[in-house]
Specification:
- With 179 residues, the protein is mostly helical.
- It has 2 domains: 89 residues, Rna Polymerase Sigma Factor, Chain: A; 75 residues, Arc Repressor Mutant, subunit A (Orthogonal Bundle).
- Helices cover 73% and strands 0% of the residues.
- It has 8 helices and no strands.
- The longest helix is centred in the C-terminal third of the chain and has 25 residues.
């Protein structure tokens, strides 16, 4: 039995503290997905809390035979993000403060510019392509897991990912040529 399944069993038996194990295990990956779909960091934290609350509340409905706990949790996160995006008009991406390091100011400026260009290119993608790209390339999920989360066929996942990569290449190439 996996660590997730053991923790879930403990929670379902009344050990609410065991849910902390699940939170610790999945919070980084969950927040990464949310942060890549929602530009405002404060909104990201709120959504992450909503996701864990929903997971805790509906834990009895989780079926480990259909998907891993991680996939189930990321599905909830994706849905919460889509709902939040529908409620709000997109705001400009708020940059998180960078930790101090030993890079030169020129290197930092160049890297910051690259990430701004990448963020702008990602924001230009249709939401389905952006979500698929983030799940595949940033989260490292399998195409099957993405299909489960997105509730689409494997072929649809492949075509969305291919189109997203193609559009990102095109957008980033144009940006580089204009520089």
């Amino acid at each position: 039995m996996s660590d997730d399944l053991r923790a879930i069993q403990r929670v379902l038996e009344g050990d609410t503290e065991a849910f902390r194990i699940l939170v610790k295990q999945h919070e980084d990956r969950l927040f990464c997905l949310i942060r890549n779909l929602i530009p405002d960091r404060n909104d990201c934290e709120d959504i992450a809390q909503e996701v864990f609350l929903a997971a805790y509340t509906h834990l009895r409905s989780y079926d480990h035979g259909r998907a891993t706990f991680s996939t189930w949790l990321l599905t909830i996160a994706r849905n919460k993000c889509l709902n939040a995006l529908k409620k709000k008009t997109p705001a400009a991406a708020a940059g998180a403060p960078e930790p101090e390091d030993a890079r030169t100011p020129d290197a930092e400026a160049s890297e910051a510019e690259w990430f701004q260009q990448l963020d702008a290119a990602l924001d230009a993608l249709p939401l389905e392509q952006k979500t698929t790209f983030v799940l595949a390339e940033i989260q490292g999920l399998s195409l099957q897991e993405i299909g489960t989360i997105e509730r689409v066929s494997l072929g649809t996942v492949k075509s969305r990912l291919s189109r997203a990569r193609e559009k990102l290449r095109s957008l980033l190439r144009r940006t580089a040529e204009q520089s």
